[in-house]
Design a protein that fits this description.
single chain, 166 residues, 5 strands, alpha/beta
């Protein structure tokens, strides 16, 4: 597709993910598009509620459940992963997954919870202007994208590989 591509992976039966999707599509993406033009967003994950399905439009796709193979293809086709959570608790599997795939990630302090030092390799932003700035940089600056991708892969190896878990 033309334009820039952002991926948000979540289980959409979980209220924090529903809120994050609405926040992303209604507040973050319009501001981002004012700065860089068209942005395509895929909301990928199981059990999208009616309110999540209602976010779909010309540049917003809601997939519903995807297999691991389909998810791998989505990660490969997107420029940036975003986890714009505003509430919730615990380590977010979707954050670790994006890290380990090397797909540059932008998240909030809620998304970063339970992952010490994540902010050293990933932009952690809690307001619309900083989310927009971080997404814009990764979507438009190849050097920044490559640097963050490499840093995330290294971070994931250090903290989340089988060896690190032992």
């Amino acid at each position: 597709p033309d334009g820039y591509n952002i991926l948000f992976v979540a289980g959409f039966s979980h209220p924090p993910n529903v809120d994050a999707a609405a926040f992303l599509i209604r507040e973050v993406i319009p501001r981002l598009e004012n700065e860089i033009g068209s942005v395509n967003v895929v909301l990928a994950g199981s059990s999208p509620s009616e309110s999540v399905q209602a976010l779909a439009g010309p540049t917003v796709s809601v997939t519903g459940y995807v297999t691991d193979e389909e998810l791998g293809k989505l990660y490969a086709r997107h420029r940036v992963s975003v986890v714009p959570l505003r509430f919730g608790a615990g380590v977010k599997g979707k954050v670790v997954e994006a890290l380990s795939r090397g797909l540059p990630l932008v998240t909030t302090s809620i998304g970063a919870q339970g992952i010490p030092a994540l902010g050293e390799v990933v932009p952690v932003c809690d307001d619309v202007p900083s989310l927009v700035a971080a997404l814009k940089l990764l979507l438009t600056d190849d050097a920044a994208w490559l640097t963050q991708s490499a840093a995330q892969l290294d971070f994931a190896q250090r903290y989340f590989s089988r060896k690190a878990m032992q």
